[in-house]
Amino acid sequence: MKPLLIIGSGGQLARAFAELCPDAIILDRSKADLSQPHNLTETLEKYDPAAVINTAAYTQVDNAEAEEGLATAINAQSPAAMAIYCAAKHIPLVHFSTDYVFDGSGDTPWHEDDTPAPLNAYGRSKLAGEDAITHVGGRYLILRTSWLYDARGKNFLNTILRLAAEREELRIVDDQFGAPTYTPHLANAVLDVLDVAMELPKFPSGVYHLCNQGYTTWYGFATAIIIHARRLGMQLKVRSIIPTPTSEYPVPAKRPHNSRLDCSKALSQFGVSLPTWQEGLAECMELKSTPRA
Ligand SMILES: NC(=O)c1ccc[n+]([C@@H]2O[C@H](COP(=O)([O-])OP(=O)(O)OC[C@H]3O[C@@H](n4cnc5c(N)ncnc54)[C@H](OP(=O)(O)O)[C@@H]3O)[C@@H](O)[C@H]2O)c1
């Protein structure tokens, strides 16, 4: 059986796939530099995979405001090259996109066919990636997800744990709503989706939403992280967590207030859904508290 080809190796999602797919070929930045889209086809031609899963992306949301060209090369032009390669080989491309393609208005979950209107350069670059892949066509799954974290990555969970060990008071944004998504849950669901998609008589190319179920705010997520950390006996200095409006945190890139994604299309098409965000957090915190073998 042909292996999966996974683009990206050091990222949170790439790590989850690497754990689940020990036989996959994994290309890190030194082998596949997505800032050089023109070189990518030649790189990919060396392999003969069953499918390509692209986990690599320019993900520094604030820096993207000043580096939109680079973000677009990595998030749109290179994925377009992957789509062309996959279409020519008649193999699926799995690509990840984001809740940040939406403007965050309203208070109901976004559907796949709602009109995107990104508020920032990162969101524009990811939307350009979606458009480029869709334009190429072939067999593709564009999976929009939200608020990724794992036990080891540079992410909100680990930032909160670090700050909670250093400070007595934390002020956390309480007016952005979304689903924290645990990357091992996402990777597992994606492999199930891909299995089902490859068995269908017609490959169901399209955009799908996939994230842990339920939603909260960053404040709600931070509070839950601290509760777990205390239960697990972690040493924390923090005494109070104060809910704070986004307006108190001026950052270069505007964030959407409503990042909720409706995942019912993936459930009805593939029979796949993720556990709740609370289950994801509980699993992640257990893992963090377990000394590595
Ligand atoms: N993080 C989130 O909250 C979030 C939310 C919604 C959607 N997403 C999407 O989900 C996917 C996975 O995100 P993630 O959180 O796992 O990302 P991540 O942890 O930030 O990792 C990004 C990966 O992309 C690689 N990369 C960056 N520039 C590259 C380049 N020029 N060439 C090759 N590789 C490059 C990085 O390589 P190095 O290790 O060498 O730096 C890193 O391995 C991305 O498509 C992202 O847009 C993420």
Question: How would you describe the overall organization of this protein?
Answer:
By secondary structure, the chain is an alpha/beta fold. It has a domain at 4-146 and 183-213 and 260-274: NAD(P)-binding Rossmann-like Domain (Rossmann fold). It contains 9 helices and 12 strands. Strands 2-1-3-4-5-10 form a 6-stranded parallel sheet, sandwiched between helices. A two-stranded parallel sheet has the order 6-9. The chain has a two-stranded parallel sheet with strand order 7-12. The radius of gyration is 19 Å and the shape is globular. It starts with a strand and ends with a helix. The structure holds NADP nicotinamide-adenine-dinucleotide phosphate (NAP). The site of NADP nicotinamide-adenine-dinucleotide phosphate (NAP) has 26 residues, from helix 1 and strand 4.
